Amino acid sequence: MSERTLIRKATVITAASAGEVLTDTDILIEDGKIVVIGRELPAGDAEILDFTGRIVMPGFVDTHRHTWQSVVRDIASDWSLTEYLAGLHTGLSKYYRPEDTYAGNYLGALEALDSGITTLVDWSHNLATPEHADAAIKALQDTGMRAVFAHGGGNKQWGAPLPSPNNHPEDARRIREQYFSDNTGLVTMAMALRGPQFTTPEVNRHDFALAKDLDLRITVHVGDGYWGKSGPILKLRDDGLLSDRITYVHCDTLSDEELDIIAASGGSASVSPDVEMQMGHGFPATGRLLEHGIRPTFSIDVCSSNGGDMFGTMRTAIGMQRALDNAPAVETGEVIERIGLSCAEVVRFATIDGANAAGLGDVTGSVEVGKAADLVALDDRSLAITPMNNPFGAVVYAAHPGLVRDVFVAGKRVKKDGQLVGVDYDRVKSLAVAARDHVMSAMPGASLGGGWHPDLTA
Prior knowledge:
34% of the residues lie in helices and 21% in strands. The protein has helices at residues 81-89, 98-114, 130-143, 168-179, 201-213, 232-238, 256-265, 273-278, 286-291, 310-332, 343-349, 352-357, 391-398, 425-442, and strands at residues 4-13, 21-30, 33-38, 47-50, 55-58, 60-65, 117-124, 146-152, 187-193, 218-222, 246-250, 268-271, 296-298, 375-378, 404-409, 412-416, 419-420. Residues 55-414 form the Amidohydrolase-related domain.
């Protein structure tokens, strides 16, 4: 028998088009997919969920997260980019065991799922051995969320003078064949490449050729801080490496010419507003991307310094962009009559645009017939969104992870009435603490409590 669920009388943000809201609407889910959207649908043998008064929307899509860092969350909240690179990339990262990578990915992915992120691009670039990669993949699979495992080249891409026992090209081929040969399943694969900012032209060409040979999408850091002023997109163009299967992460300091090149090539972009402002990457490129015809998407980036939910990310992004849009008028004493960037568009950045960037736009990212039932339902009992006057404003400005009451992935209810289903919270905490304790104790000078800053002279 098929598995059927009928959601009744919800306020549905479809994200299929900007501003579309369906009130008092039913959603029929069958075998993991949305099969009918309408009113007063016949229930038949379906399980009925009365969601009257509740916002139901697509699950969020995080297009770039170094999930392995979740066990050292907030350790870098007061760090500069220089300290982050020293403390994490040439510091704590080298003490990770495979079990620590598992704990980091398991904790981080569950945190994302708990807050309504149903699809996660795991930018996994601390894979010291094949066993680390296996552990990262297993953790994603164990959560039951939709994820893209983006295989990274290890810490060498950040200039770390550390030898690695892992042959990353060989390991990527192994993983493609062993885990992701048929491109199906909730967890799929991409390549997280070093890119022209962080390696030689020869190595960069090799990396892009490997991704093409493995038939995988690419996600790559560009335009973050002073590195981004080196013309990375121009270099990719000159080497004939541009395509519509690339997501460019950050983009803050790219030139207008480079943004035009990305747009013409059909590439996508991922904005990480919290990290970019803290670590000196430059102003988040949300508005500039739009001006050049590129739909932004959002990413958390690193929970070692900032929060891991999409609500905070959306607020940071829209607040910063509105400030930038208002700044010229403030300088001239003018008053802007209408705001340019709407809450409805920001919700689309965090859902369908993110799904498109992850190569999953035909699978998830919007509430449409034929798509996977990757859904989030917010709690209508909260005074923060009562009365419901503007669903988009409620999601962007008033909602938070605590309002995520139910989450569905491929039609399966993975969070029910505010609790993740089948998750042993005590075990998750135990794994996270054990990994944190090992990694922190292994690095000389590292300490908890908020006062530790890595030694930049070492």
